[in-house]
Amino acid sequence: MKSLIALLPGDGIGPEVAQQGVRALQAIASRFGHEFDIRSALVGGAAIDATGSPLPGETASLCREADAVLLGAVGGPKWSDPNAQVRPEQGLLALRREIGVFANLRPIQPHPALSPSSPIKDHLLRGVDILFVRELTGGIYFGDKTRSETQASDLCVYTVEEIERIVRVACELARDRKSQLLSIDKANVLETSRLWRATTEALVRNEYPDITLEHMLVDAAAMHLLKAPASMDVLVTENMFGDILTDEASMLAGSLGMLPSASLGAENKGLYEPIHGSAPDIAGKGIANPYGMILSAALLLRHSLGLEAEALAVENAVNRAIERGILTADLAAGAAAGTVEASDAVVADLSA
Predict the structure, then answer these.
(1) Spatial distance between the Cα atoms of 179 and 168, rounded to a whole number of angstroms
(2) Is 114 contained in some domain?
(3) Residue 345: how many CB atoms within 10 A of its CB?
(4) Is the pTM of this model over 0.70?
(5) Counting CB atoms within 10 angstroms of each CB, which of 56, 83, 115, 245 has the fewest?
(6) 258-305: per-residue pLDDT in tens?
(7) 231/304 same-domain check
(8) Is the pLDDT of residue 332 over 90?
(9) pLDDT at 333 over 80
(10) Kind of pairing, strands 35-40 and 180-185?
């Protein structure tokens, strides 16, 4: 099969890890007889420097045409002025709107060999297999904003339609796991959360009677993630809560560098990126962890291209590299593996 993949390396360590994702995809193409047409384009700060826009028209056009988008990272101190009219993050938000993605999936399944890297006690990590489903295009991040010298406001808005479509995604994913769904909100305080809870209850009752639904307040969920993470399975929540909780949950895996993400829409097209950000402090040093990006490429294979065996092959190759002790500095103090060396171990496994 031939698939068009848009590659957006972005800023900071983005280009370094993006290249390792490409290497994994090329190894899969060779092993399984696929053809991937991978085309690069600018986004974020690099795009601002070159064109003045964080999402140039050419990039948007390529992403609309592509079967999937693989992104490195955006942002950095060069473009960090909060008063700037044009910022790298605007490119990412615009890209999500451009290709219509609204459901952000973040799987968290700590590898036993990495338990020393986590600040969480080892016995709490056993059996942890969590899938976050975060609403991506609504809520306070996208609401109207005002600011004066003495006051500022950010409006949080959700519609029934926005809540229903993200909960449907979560329910479909839950059906493939334990048929359990935990919805996280702040319904004791926020009207948007009260709408979220009522809408979720009605939809699950009417459309997914086989799903066991529970609710949890976001502050309790934050505590539960650290106290009893193995009891959680599929979690669905709104935009800001999901943003915060998934970064917290990354510590279960030992490092932000380990976690992939997929942002999906109504169709198969998706946006895939590691959650670690641009990490400008280590950019260009060759020490960034490539596993989150490589695992994001696995999610691309699974969700956008429908290649489950190929996705599993990538995930198993990463697991075996970790078992062999091929660890970057974020995973183990004094670890010697650099970005390319860690990627080499995965590619060699896929090519064996």
Answers:
(1) 13
(2) no
(3) 21
(4) yes
(5) 83
(6) 999 999 998 889 999 999 999 999 999 999 999 999 999 999 999 999
(7) no
(8) no
(9) no
(10) unpaired
| Cβ atoms of residues 278 and 12 within 8 Å | yes
Q: Give yes or no: residues 198 and 165 share one domain.
A: yes
Residues 147 and 89 in one domain: no
Residue 184: phi, psi to the nearest 5?
-110, 130
How many residues comprise the chain?
352
User: Is 335 part of any domain?
Assistant: yes
Q: Are residues 150 and 224 in the same domain?
A: yes
- Residue 110 covered by a domain: no
Token pair, residue 147, equals: 């600011």
Print the domain residue range for 193. 119-252
Contact between 209 and 163 under an 8 Å Cβ cutoff? The reply is no
- Indicate if 147 and 77 belong to the same structural domain: no
User: If residue 245 lies in a helix (H) or strand (E), which one and from where to where?
Assistant: helix 239-249
Q: What is the pLDDT of residue 1?
A: 67
Q: Determine the Cα angle at 90 with ends 277 and 62, to 5°.
A: 90
User: Any idea which residue has 């826009």 for tokens?
Assistant: 53
Exposure class string for 291-306: b at 16+ Cβ within 10 A, else e = bbbbbbbbbbbbbbbe
Question: Are residues 123 and 167 both part of a single domain?
Answer: yes
CATH code, 274: 3.40.718.10
SS3 348: helix
pLDDT at 88 over 80: yes
* Residue with more model confidence, 1 or 108: 108
Cα dihedral 117, 120, 123, 128 sign: negative
Q: Give 58 or 251, the one with higher predicted confidence.
A: 58
The answer on 123 and 244 residing in a single domain is yes
Report the pLDDT averaged over residues 83-102: 92
CA distance linking residue 128 with residue 146, whole number of Å? 41
The pLDDT of residue 155 is 97
The span from the CA of 64 to the CA of 68, in Å, is 9
Number of domains in the chain: 2
Whether 253 has a pLDDT exceeding 70, the answer reads yes
Residue ending a domain, among 252, 276, 298, is 252
Output the pLDDT for position 266.
83
Task: Tell me the catalytic residues.
Answer: 141, 186, 219, 243, 247
**3-class DSSP state of 234:** strand
- Is the residue at 257 inside a domain? no
